[in-house]
Amino acid sequence: MVLNPFERVQFFQELSPEQRALVQPLFIPCDLYAGTILFEQGEIPEFLYLVIDGEVMIRFKPDDGPALTVARVRPLGMVGWSAALGNSTYTSSAVCSSECHLLRVRSNDLRVLCNKDPETGGIILEQLATLIAQRLRNTHTHVLELLKQGMRQQTTLPMHGVR
Question: 30, 58, 143, 163: least CB-packed within 10 angstroms?
Fold first, then answer.
């Protein structure tokens, strides 16, 4: 028996049963295969995703180099927060690295919820902020390791201006 994610996921636990009933129709379940692209860097952000099961890779493509995997988002993590932040484009790409069960919500639906029911919207925004802050802490360590690896690869080049 598969449990209802609204009953088992911490993200929704701060909501009363009435608030859960209000929010649940906004979060649409998505079952996706490994390799499915959720969104590409540069696309207009429309959806925010909560990972229930599986793993989603976040990839960033700098202008001057190959795409880098900057995060691996596992269950109870959130991807696509450019949509919630009101960014004009997604700042990274997201691809399922395994079979995934996600909940997807439109950014516009979140805006409507926040305006219609500020108390419920406030709880959802607090949960989003917590997830985003957690991922930023985790991403920092990963990006630092990527930078260190990059510096180790460059040690064979001569240093200009250093004697």
Answer: 163
Q: Is 86 left (phi over 0), alpha (psi -120 to 50) or beta?
A: left
| Integer Rg of the chain from CA | 18
The amino acid at 32: L
- What are the angstrom distances between the C-alpha of 106 and each of 12, 31, 113? 17, 17, 11
H/E/C letters for each residue in 55-124? CEEEEECCCCCCCEEEEEECCCCEECCHHHHCCCCCCCEEEECCCEEEEEEEHHHHHHHHHHCHHHHHHH
pLDDT at 125: 86
The CA–CA distances, whole Å, from 19 to 50, 75, 128 equal 18, 23, 16
Tokens of 114: 């926040």
Q: What does the mean pLDDT of the chain come to?
A: 84
**93 neighbors 37 (Cβ within 8 angstroms):** yes
Record the pTM. Answer: 0.79
Give the separation between CA 39 and CA 150, rounded to whole angstroms: 27
